[in-house]
């Protein structure tokens, strides 16, 4: 495990110096023409838990995009909650991963609304919902369907949905086709959520428990990493040219997938264990430190 400093340079072990004159940049490091595929989590990484992106993070991200690196958002947020972040850091052409890998976007200014959905992984949520409801009867449940609508119980709303959820009864949710299911409780701890999951089992889906008693569920085998790997192959990036930054348990597969996986300073122990480096916390612009190291 390496602790990232302001002067860290990405990919030192694998990086090829494409400059025959071995020129140096303004920081005194070897100038590198090689471009990286850079995957960035949003909440707890680019923005704090109040949803604020600092000027330092925004400017560093914009600079990496302008330098020609393939920067892409990889978030648990749904599409409409992801688009403002994409715009803020200046990505007009490229790709983004939403819904923890359930939705992949292609971005281009000539497309209607500036993007198109190129992949969507759906699943039948009924078995998981029934099992969890029996074990966690007081929890709130929300579901993003195949058309991008959110259905929820008990007026469950969250900024990560990107749209206002429509209140429905639990039976209606069971009949929907899902891209993403969210379970939340103010009465349970993350440890109790883990206990419930272990008790009921969640076969046929992929899941991750968040900072609080918050559970995200996607189709089996679908993670940020699975979607990013599909994009890596599509774009022809070599494995050693991949960078990822994140802070949550839903980032573990992504940090393991990347040749350079960087955990935020406030990340829990299991996320840090999956990373190659640890940067500063989101409150100290940790993502900006990583991004500036790519310039």
List strands and helices in order, with pairings.
Elements: E1 2-3, E2 37-40, H1 55-66, E3 70-73, H2 79-88, E4 94-98, E5 103-107, E6 115-120, H3 126-135, E7 140-145, E8 150-152, E9 166-167, H4 170-174, E10 178-184, H5 190-200, E11 205-209, E12 214-219, H6 224-235, E13 242-246, H7 252-257, E14 260-263, H8 269-274, E15 277-278, H9 286-292
Parallel strand pairs: 1-15, 2-3, 2-13, 8-9, 13-14, 14-15
Antiparallel strand pairs: 4-5, 5-6, 7-8, 7-10, 10-12, 11-12
Describe this protein's structure.
The protein has 295 residues and is an alpha/beta fold. Helix content is 27%, strand content 22%. It contains 9 helices and 15 strands. The chain has a 6-stranded parallel sheet. The chain has a 6-stranded mixed sheet with strand order 9-8-7-10-12-11, covered by helices on one side. Strands 4-5-6 form a 3-stranded antiparallel sheet, with helices on both faces. α7 links the parallel β13 (242-246) and β14 (260-263). α1 packs parallel to α9 (286-292). The protein is globular. The relative contact order is 0.18. The model is unreliable at 5-32 (pLDDT under 50).
């Amino acid at each position: 495990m390496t602790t990232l400093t302001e002067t860290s340079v990405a990919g030192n072990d694998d990086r090829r110096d494409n400059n025959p004159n071995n020129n140096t940049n303004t920081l005194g490091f070897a100038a590198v023409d090689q471009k990286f595929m850079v995957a960035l989590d949003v909440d707890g990484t680019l923005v704090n838990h109040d949803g604020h992106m600092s000027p330092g993070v925004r400017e560093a991200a914009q600079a990496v995009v302008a330098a020609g690196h393939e920067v892409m958002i990889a978030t648990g947020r749904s599409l409409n909650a992801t688009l403002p972040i994409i715009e803020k850091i200046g990505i007009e052409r490229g790709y983004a991963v939403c819904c923890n890998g359930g939705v992949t976007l292609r971005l281009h200014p000539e497309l209607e609304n500036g993007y198109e959905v190129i992949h969507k992984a759906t699943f039948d949520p009924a078995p998981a919902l029934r099992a969890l409801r029996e074990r966690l009867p007081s929890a709130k449940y929300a579901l993003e369907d195949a058309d991008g609508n959110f259905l929820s119980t008990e007026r469950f709303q969250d900024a990560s949905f990107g749209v206002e959820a429509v209140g429905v009864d639990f039976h209606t949710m069971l009949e929907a086709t899902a891209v993403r299911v969210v379970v939340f409780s103010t009465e349970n701890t993350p440890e109790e959520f883990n206990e419930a999951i272990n008790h009921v089992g969640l076969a046929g889906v992929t899941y991750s428990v968040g900072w609080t008693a918050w559970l995200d569920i996607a189709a089996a085998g679908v993670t940020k990493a699975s979607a990013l790997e599909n994009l890596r192959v599509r774009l022809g990036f070599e494995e050693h040219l991949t960078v990822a930054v994140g802070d949550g348990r839903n980032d573990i597969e992504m940090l393991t997938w990347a040749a350079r996986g960087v955990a935020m300073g406030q990340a829990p122990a299991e996320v840090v264990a999956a990373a190659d480096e640890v940067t500063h916390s989101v409150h100290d612009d940790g993502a900006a430190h990583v991004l500036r190291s790519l310039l």
